[in-house]
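for the writeup, i need someone to sanity check this before i put it in the appendix. the sequnce is what the collaborator sent (i think, or maybe the updated version? ugh). structure was predicted straight from it, no edits. if anything looks off just tell me and ill rerun, i have time this weekend
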Amino acid sequence: MIWKQHKGFSSEFLVQHHDLVLYDIYHQIKALVLFPSNCSCQDSCKCSEWREKIVLALNTGLYNEFLKFVDPDRLWAMKALWCIPEDHLFRERYAEAYPVWLVDKELKNREKESHFKMIDQLVWTYLSLGETANSSGEAPKVSQNKAMKVILGETPLNKKNSGFQKDEHICGGEKEYASNFNKYKFVCHFIVALEAWKTALPNWEWALSSLYPPPEDIEAILKSAHWFRKKLLSLERYNVKGNIFLSEEDICPLPSWVHSYELDDPIEFSEEELQKIKTQDLLH
């Protein structure tokens, strides 16, 4: 697991340098978003290698910022926790480095293409549908088809000359939503937590484009992500063996010391969906 590298240090050391651990985790999340672990690569997949290079580049960039004003003990802790090698190794492998500016560019491109907005909409829709079913006494079951009807509406987007005007909140068609969810499923809870933080702090650019946010913000994002993961794992799927919507292996776990952060805004029920469920119960 990606958090294992922090297990070789004493608890006192990790508490003392908790902010450094948070920065490292934040950079690993960026790498996972750009190169998800459930990639579609066939043979000779290099996603793991690229993730390592991204984390090293981001950690090194932050190390260079701190280099100007922190004491040697603190710098040693950074090199140890962030796995920063000696200078000669950087020179030897300079041509293989992953530029920090490219990380930022790729994240902004995906934001511009609405990848993250689609994930945000899907996750909230799944949670809303689950709460709707649960409030009627049913298990919190969800489906891709129902989620698409909520987001896209009953009118097909590809119907020519229908007079249908695409709503501003719709980011694409059903295939695009499904494709992006499959791609980012492992990190979907991080993406939704970051989107929520973006809304809470409108003066920020998208959270992942911020190189070095305050450590307390990173910790709050992790707690929110933990809450989203817990909620997603409680959902069930219709007509599937075991009724599992997402398994523990489907969504990236968080470090053991991260606990849920209860969101202030409750999940909104879909009243229309609730009425449909009640009607079906009466018919049966």
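The first strand starts at residue 141 and ends at 142. The first helix runs from residue 11 to 16.
thx in advance!!
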